Amino acid sequence: AAGVIQSPRHLIKEKRETATLKCYPIPRHDTVYWYQQGPGQDPQFLISFYEKMQSDKGSIPDRFSAQQFSDYHSELNMSSLELGDSALYFCASSPGQHNSPLHFGNGTRLTVT
Amino acid sequence: GESVGLHLPTLSVQEGDNSIINCAYSNSASDYFIWYKQESGKGPQFIIDIRSNMDKRQGQRVTVLLNKTVKHLSLQIAATQPGDSAVYFCAENMDTSGTYKYIFGTGTRLKVLA
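Output (structure tokens, whole complex):
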């Protein structure tokens, strides 16, 4: 079965650079969530989209923005990168119905040097 | 506040024994709960879920128990195998002003001893 696809798998950036992470949800899933996971930490909710509209916002810095496109893929844009942004970034999708589990991709590991 | 926490950060069990991973949640309005398994370098993988109108649900070798009175969730793994070694997270689905989001708790690392 098709899963959530994230790209790139690994990304190395320097401080103050920008990064764009991409997420392709499972077909027919119209809801996308972004999570940030630091080493040894639980996933922290950043932002979510339903039908191309932002549906909820968590602890996402103002330096980050995201959007969901007409084909339901989503991109997380990160600017003025800081060392503390180094983490695993996961995208998850769901069919948008309440009480549906999230299906996660394998993440993008971002390293800021 | 909004939080889902776990009592034990690390659990070591002998291969073949049963494992029990616990989770306490704080929002009594949460009505849907999920257990995820995360292996190193991978995203969280869905294991089993339970709705708040149930107190028990069984899957293959796994059982989730929900006690709404004390806001407690547990995952039981029968006959634990080496492949069960991973970090386990519980997550609650809560209504926040008309939208739903999933809040994860601190994971428990399960180590299976040969």
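Confidence is low (pLDDT under 50) at residues 1-8 of chain B.
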